[in-house]
Amino acid sequence: MLVSIVTSTRSVVARLGLVAAIATLAGTTVAAEDAYPSRPVKIALMMAPGNGLDIATRNFADMLAKELGQPVVVDNRPGANGIIAFQSAKSAPADGYTLLVGSSSPMTIVTAMDRPVPYDPFKDFKPVAGMLRAVGLLTVPADSKLTSIRDLAKASKAKPLSIATYSDSYALGGLQLGEMAGAQLLSVPYKGYNAILQDLVGGRVDIAFGDAFAPQELIKAGKLRPLAVTGKTRIDAYPDIPTVAESGLPDYSFYTWDIFLVRSETPAPIAAKLGAAISHVMNGREWPAYLRANGGSETMRDSAPEIQRMLENEVTLYRTLAAKMPKTAQ
Fold first, then answer.
1. Is there a single domain that holds both residue 151 and residue 285?
2. Which of 87, 131, 166, 185 is found 20 to 30 A from 261 (Cα to Cα)?
3. Which of 229, 247, 269 is the last residue of a domain?
4. Residue 241 in contact with residue 169, Cβ under 8 Å?
5. pLDDT in tens, 118-161
């Protein structure tokens, strides 16, 4: 009987100790969430220093630091098409002190194409806010007979038109354009935009599809001609150039994008604080003004749930398009 009482007493004490430990841990967690951020926040970025996105991210980091009351530093992790940056962020604690800039290549495209990567873009990370969204530009040689998107189908009947791109997202966007226009567009992959523009000026490819701002000087020099922009509205840099939608394909639009992610296990209150701070920057004056003055990208004000839906929809679209892409282009 005495042994039973002693055992029971020890059990009660052990349980009380466990409850106390849990309560202490919970209190510590709540305190950490309330105090967040209490030290510098890091942004893992897949681009090298000096890249356009790197410069934009550093400017955004300065603005975000004012909102958070702590320094925000950019941690450049270039290479392997974003894999190094994603691995770095995945190995960091899920405490909100490491943000990750995500884009289509290491997220929706690797998922749609079933490419093996050492992380799961959807299970290991969750979006907290958008950063920026940019339209694409379809450009042709100055002496090209193509004057509108409406010309693509007729011009490609006898022979496919070559469309040069430098990333999977632009290649898939070009494939979608060809399908919707009823045109034969032959995707020609390049490693960089400069080489594409040189070959376009030389007439070695028919169309270039890439960001809207790299070709500006060649367009001003009269060596290239913009055909259409791929957003839903015209842009300030090319006010007289129509959208693809205006040119006869009302359901077509294409954007590249960059978003902020955190580890999926990051506590919801911390993710919410980050999202609110980022949204405050988005809705302020500095960030939109910076984008207008440095390339004309749009602020991406989508909420975390809206971004999640966008990602899922993009995977579905890209999976369908990738199945039709020549194996040599994948």
1. no
2. 166
3. 229
4. no
5. 999 999 999 999 999 999 999 999 999 999 999 999 999 989 99
Q: Is residue 88 domain-shared with residue 102, that is, in the same domain?
A: yes
| CATH number for the domain harbouring residue 94 | 3.40.190.150
Q: Are residues 283 and 223 in the same domain?
A: no
Pairing of strands 72-76, 41-45: parallel
* pLDDT tens readout for residues 299-322: 999 999 999 999 999 999 999 998
Task: Fill in the DSSP letter of residue 119.
Answer: S
What is the band of 26 on the pLDDT scale with cuts at 50, 70, 90? very low
Handedness of CA 15, 16, 22, 25 (dihedral sign): negative
SS3 of the chain: helix, strand, coil, percent, to 5: 45, 20, 35
**Count: domains in the chain:** 2
Query: How far, CA to CA in Å, does 130 sit from each of 49, 54, 206, 258, 271?
Result: 21, 16, 34, 7, 13
- 158 part of a folded domain: yes
Q: Please determine, for residue 330, whether its predicted confidence score (pLDDT) is greater than 80.
A: no
| Same domain, yes or no: 67 and 125 | yes
For the record, the structure tokens of 149 come out as: 């998107």
Q: What is the pTM of this model?
A: 0.84
CATH code (residue 146): 3.40.190.10
Residue 141, φ and ψ in degrees, nearest 5: -60, 150
CA–CA dist 231, 229 (Å, integer)? 6
Domain that holds residue 188: 135-229
pLDDT at 166 (0 to 100): 92
| Ramachandran sector of residue 142 (left: φ over 0; alpha: ψ -120 to 50; beta: rest) | alpha
- Residue 27 included in any domain: no
